[in-house]
Design brief:
There is one protein chain. This protein has 131 residues and is of the alpha+beta class. The protein has a single domain, classed as Yope Regulator, Chain: A. It is 44% helix and 29% strand. The chain is built from three helices and six strands, in the order αββββαββα. Strands 1-2-3-4-6-5 form a six-stranded antiparallel beta sheet. A hairpin with a 2-residue loop joins strand 1 and strand 2. It is elongated. It starts with a helix and ends with a helix.
């Protein structure tokens, strides 16, 4: 593990306890079981969605991208501003924003799965009532 991962963990300890897991040549950063950040190539990327993405765009930050089958693929994790390494209060604000984005995504997926299960149950009930 590089020295950068402990630095990021220390940076975020004023906000909340975080854990890390190795993944795809980098590390995922988790709080309460949700991945809200990644570290790739000694760079911190934070979860972004429609709500907080404008904050990243306003600073000219970019999403993490990788090449797959000759095409660039952008993830919903955007480069963290360098200023957070100098300003602990900024680190807390950005981490909370990223975790909120991860939570919104998790809740939307759970709601989508519930709706899909309800549709399947309705179809089964409809079929059984025709028999």
């Amino acid at each position: 593990m590089s020295d950068f991962i402990p630095l990021v963990q220390e940076l975020l300890e004023d906000w909340a306890p975080v854990s890390t897991r190795r993944m795809f040549g980098g590390h995922g950063i988790y709080h309460e079981g949700l991945m809200f950040a990644i570290v790739m190539d000694q760079r911190l990327y934070l979860k972004a969605d429609d709500v907080n993405r404008p904050d990243f765009e306003a600073l000219g930050l970019a999403p993490f991208t990788y090449t797959m089958k000759g095409r660039d693929v952008a993830l919903s994790y955007w480069a963290a501003p360098d200023a957070i390494f100098d300003q602990p209060c900024d680190a807390v604000r950005w981490a909370r924003s990223a975790w909120d984005a991860a939570l919104r995504g998790h809740l939307a997926k759970a709601q989508s799965r519930s709706k899909a299960k309800a549709k399947v149950a309705d179809k089964k009930a409809s079929r059984s009532s025709r028999v």
